[in-house]
Amino acid sequence: MGSKWNLVMTSINIVLVDKSPLVLSGLSKIFGDDKRFSIIATAADGERFMEAVERLSFDIAVIGWEMPFMNGRDVLAGLKSVTDAPRIVVYTGSIKPGVARQVLQLGGAGFCSKQDSPQMLIDTVVSVAEGRMVFPFMSVDAPVSEGMDALTPRERDLLVSLADGRTNSQIARELGISLNTVKFHLKNLYEKLGVNNRAQAVARFLVGSDGY
After folding, report:
1. Are residues 89 and 157 in the same domain?
2. pTM score, two decimals?
3. Is residue 180, in this structure, part of any structural domain at all?
4. Which of 81, 110, 141, 167 is deepest in the core (most CB within 10 A)?
5. Residue 212 lies in a domain
6. What is the chain's pLDDT, residue by residue, as a tens digit (212 residues)?
7. What DSSP line would sit under 47-62, residue for residue?
8. In this structure, what CATH number is given to the domain that contains residue 183?
9. Contact status, residue 91 vs residue 114, Cβ threshold 8 Å
10. Does 138 map to a domain?
11. Are 163 and 58 found together in one domain?
12. CB 116 within 8 A of CB 87
């Protein structure tokens, strides 16, 4: 995506992602009023954001953590396979312990709570654009939890589709998402279940299906 980390920039190209239309509108206002930023796109969920990554060139994304279809954790995991991916700042109101630690461990560049001031978020994004990482003090020793309980509702739907024998193309058509987005989901699904392919994933599903 070009030399996006040069310290001398005309603007910082950003994409904004949040499940709340009100929050998304507020973020658009905050960054739109600051001439240092250029808003390339907005999205309401992680799937649409990943599709924007395929189509658009931008420097940084400010994303939520708890989003439909593809949450912040899965976006970060999916971006690991993307060449020259944008840097991610997670902006969330989640009170779940360890979220900031997960963002750091999964390759995020910054973390900001919705309890912080808008200026704190802006300063975080500027610092990330300058090549720094911005996180609150935390312990980074505990591992990120994985397994069947970590699956998102979308990933559970995909697992059922796999068990029914559907192909990636069929799943993409049924869910109204791109083939690459299906592949992102499946990659995350396999990692969470500790498997290497769809046959192993289906086997795990059949063993653990009592909880579904």
Report:
1. no
2. 0.67
3. yes
4. 110
5. no
6. 444 444 445 689 999 999 999 999 999 999 999 999 999 999 999 999 999 999 999 999 999 999 988 899 899 988 988 888 999 999 998 767 678 888 988 899 999 999 889 999 999 999 999 999 998 876 545 444 456 667 788 888 888 888 888 899 998 888 888 888 888 888 888 888 878 888 878 777 766 554 44
7. HHHHHHHHH---SEEE
8. 1.10.10.10
9. yes
10. no
11. no
12. no
Q: How many CB atoms lie within 10 A of CB 173?
A: 13
Structure-block tokens of residue 208: 């653990």
Nearest to 42 by CA among 58, 33, 34: 58
Q: Give the other-Cβ count within 10 Å of 106's Cβ.
A: 18
Residue-number span of the structural domain to which 51 is assigned: 12-129
The answer to whether 30 and 120 are in contact (CB under 8 A) is no
Residue 7 lies in a domain: no
Residue 4: what are its φ and ψ, rounded to 5°? -80, -10
Number of domains in the chain: 2
CA gap 184, 169 in Å, rounded = 13
Q: Are residues 120 and 163 in the same domain?
A: no
**Token match 């704190």: residue?**
120
